[in-house]
């Protein structure tokens, strides 16, 4: 039986459309969700948690505002690999807003994988990092029935996972690259599901481009 994500890959590969979205956290003191929706944006990813001891203070407010404005929305978790296990951080994320439901307006959670202020790879080997991500991903899937989206940039993925292709058939890629095109896709993914193309979006946060038509975005949310 084909996995839901493999089926989704086939759908995305056939389309050329795109849907504007954005992501936000407490670093944005105010976000104009209504204006963003009016401008054509249709999805929002909101920071929910970090490590296993931090809840973003704006998450609840922004999640409610995004819902009221009509957005497809979801949460993201800023990973601290190596501090606690992937499963522990997945549980924390799910318990504090990062879960998924098949209501058609909730995206699977996103795992934010990037450097800390002091260490690119959080002190882990490439093998240990892949194992940590897999533990998070598997736990999220066990609890919610969906695999999380993985947010990363090519240099981090190559340096910290050895350019692993272990997640190609399960986890949608959210690619961070601030440029005029997505460029080379790491990790064996044939393309990105979402492209974070700018760290400055008119109505708040970072600009995200969904790689597909609105029907495909709804499919991602529905599962």
Automatic annotation (TrEMBL):
Q: Is the keyword Glycoprotein in the record? A: no
State any GO BP term from the record.
Answer: carbohydrate catabolic process
The domain of life for this entry's organism is Eukaryota
First and last residue of the signal peptide? 1-21
Localization recorded for this chain is: Secreted
According to its UniProt record, the EC number is 3.2.1.17
Provide the Gene Ontology terms for cellular component.
extracellular region
What are the record keywords, sorted?
Antimicrobial, Bacteriolytic enzyme, Disulfide bond, Glycosidase, Hydrolase, Secreted, Signal
Coarsely, its chief localization is: secreted
The reaction(s) this protein catalyses? Hydrolysis of (1->4)-beta-linkages between N-acetylmuramic acid and N-acetyl-D-glucosamine residues in a peptidoglycan and between N-acetyl-D-glucosamine residues in chitodextrins
Which CDD domains did the record assign? GH25_CH-type
Q: Name one Pfam family in it.
A: Glyco_hydro_25
One term of GO molecular function:
lysozyme activity
Instruction: Report the PROSITE patterns cross-referenced here.
Output: GLYCOSYL_HYDROL_F25_2 (PS51904)
Q: Which family does it belong to?
A: Belongs to the glycosyl hydrolase 25 family.
Function per UniProt: This enzyme has both lysozyme (acetylmuramidase) and diacetylmuramidase activities.
Supply the PANTHER family for this chain.
Answer: LYSOZYME (PTHR34135:SF2)
Name of this protein:
N,O-diacetylmuramidase
Species source reads Podospora didyma
